[in-house]
Write a structure and sequence with these properties.
The complex is a heterodimer. By secondary structure, chain A is α/β, with parallel strands linked by helices. Chain A has helices at 3-14, 30-43, 62-73, 78-91, 102-108, 110-120, 136-144, 159-168, 190-203, 218-227, 236-243, 250-263, and strands at 18-24, 47-51, 96-99, 124-126, 148-150, 152-153, 173-176, 209-212, 231-234. By secondary structure, chain B is an alpha/beta fold. Helix content of chain B is 44%, strand content 18%. In chain B, the strands form 4 sheets. In chain B, strands 3-4-14-9-10-13 form a 6-stranded mixed beta sheet, with helices on both faces. A 4-stranded parallel beta sheet of chain B has the order 7-6-5-8, sandwiched between helices. In chain B, strands 1-2 form a two-stranded antiparallel ribbon. Classes of the chains: A alpha/beta, B alpha/beta. The interface between A and B is large, with 42 and 39 residues.
Chain lengths: 267, 400
Amino acid sequence: MSRIQDKFKELYSKNEKALIGYLMTGYPNEKDTVSAIRGLIQGGADIIELGFPFSDPLADGPVIQNASTISLNKGTKLEKFFKILKQIRRETKIPLVLMTYTNILYSYGYDKFLSKVKRLGLDGIILPDMSIEESSEYLKAARKNHIDTIFLVSPNTNKDRIKRITKATTGFLYLVSMYGTTGMQGKIQKYTINAVKNTKKIVNGKIPVGVGFGVSSASDVKRFVSLGADAVIVGSAFLRLIENTPSNKIESRLASFTRQLKQATKS
Amino acid sequence: MKNMLPKNGRFGEFGGKYVPETLVPAIEELAENYLKFKNDKGFKKELDYYLKSYAGRPTPLYFAKNLTKKVGGAKIYLKREDLLHGGAHKINNTLGQALLAKKMKKKRVIAETGAGQHGVATAMACSCLGIKSEVYMGYKDTIRQKLNVFRMNLLGSKVHPVKSGSQTLKDAINEAIRDWITNVETTYYLLGSAVGPHPYPMMVRDFQAVIGEEIKKQMKEITKKMPDAVIACVGGGSNAIGTFYPMLDDDVEMIGVEAAGHGLRTDYHSATLNAGSRGVLHGMMTYLLQDKEGQIKETHSISAGLDYPGVGPEHAYLKDTKRVRYSSATDDEAIDAFLLLTRSEGIIPALESAHAVAEAIKIAKTRSKSESLVVTLSGRGDKDVEVVEEYLKKNVKNSR
């Protein structure tokens, strides 16, 4: 069993849902990324999703785009991501997931990359531009190295395709809550509510379903949990908070925001 | 090789569909509709009508006798796509796709543009067919090509300046894709080159193949045989694939010309096939200009239309199978060719097309007078005269 599976099992027994917090490697800088991760852990996040910046993040909205650009302009390289990963893994057993774009892994070599991050303690990977049709080489390398492959489904994904994607997915299935890029805000739409219910029904307990994109407050978290989500993913809201927080306060402020969000996952 | 339907959306190992899941239903719907309408008699007839009476097809194949004489060697023919409505080959594709969008009952069309030629051609086709259009354009390009922004506005299209990333064509594509993800249910994405996820590279190629088909027919009429070589410039590669595709099975030499900018040894070029490596960008696997960790590099060319860090996946395939040779021309060589063609024939080529002319000049010298070369003149150069003027001021080449 992977750390991610163990975590969901543990939460299930406590009747809690998972809070997944997203941060960007090297944003606003290396030191503060580590403080932010520590803040999330202190506040009770269940899984940490760490983004690695790509020059052309076409699934991301303005907040994560901006964080990617700042990180890359500060010279973020994979070496920095590896270093942070190693350091956090030394401090904690929390499941760690990487979110980046296909070209970063392809360019390094799927197998070479996955065996490297496995050694450093990574548990899963999310690639928003990797479709199941193109995934055979990636899947092979991930299975070999025991890294969970977290695929995404969308409100317009049909039943048959959700089933096929679920088969390729390990860890949890990532449901994109809305038509749009990361970090969009607004009222939860009817189609989103239907998508959560529908996906849960089709997946039928085979794997946990995490809901992300546009989840930014404790009330959002509460709503998705009540609809049946097994996990909620919050990203841009953390980055927005970091943007307005001085370096020495990042850890404590993120911890307190995380605590609010985590509280909302307990029904 | 004819009528090649890419298997699983791939040309050899290139192409595919690396897209966010939200777009999968959209590109599947598009592929399905395209394959349906492509062979539909009514659709073909309607498209032919617009190509002929609106865009100005067929375009002439002109024997450039003065240029041929000046260069000395093989005969140089020019395929005059520059004479099309809007001044470039782009309208072949935008009419085809806008008509398809209409058949698919899409109310809104979005597009990206680099120099603005595709944006203008989209605005024209959509205005002609009565569809609302919006165009994403890198902020830097909106400054460099102010006139085209105004043209698009006049034509009723809304232009969105893109301020993210390098603020050029690749970022305009990213932003158009983000819009498409957000408005996927109502919007048609009219991609301008033979790039992106399947079915775009195949579909854009098919709409541009009219160029090569006409060249074949016209050469047979004029010279009673096929050309010995065809030459076209390659950015994303739509005019080149349109030129090559109908002749892939014939005994014709093919040369694609990339932008070598300040030179292939510098960081200032856009010669993806000459200097790039494999990777995944904008939904496709292809050659890319990227750093060691897979971050996409910023590119340079004096011609905005070639300024792109990727290339159509079918070109990547044709390079690896060695069916097409991909060479390059520097900014300086393109300017020289621009001036030589303008002065010898009274034809002002687009700077993109001037790269192809530069290659023709290079090789015509080495070939016998009995051979014939066809150069696709993908667009006219009116849009570039300011850039050329600036270049000449800096480089004092007026004396030539």
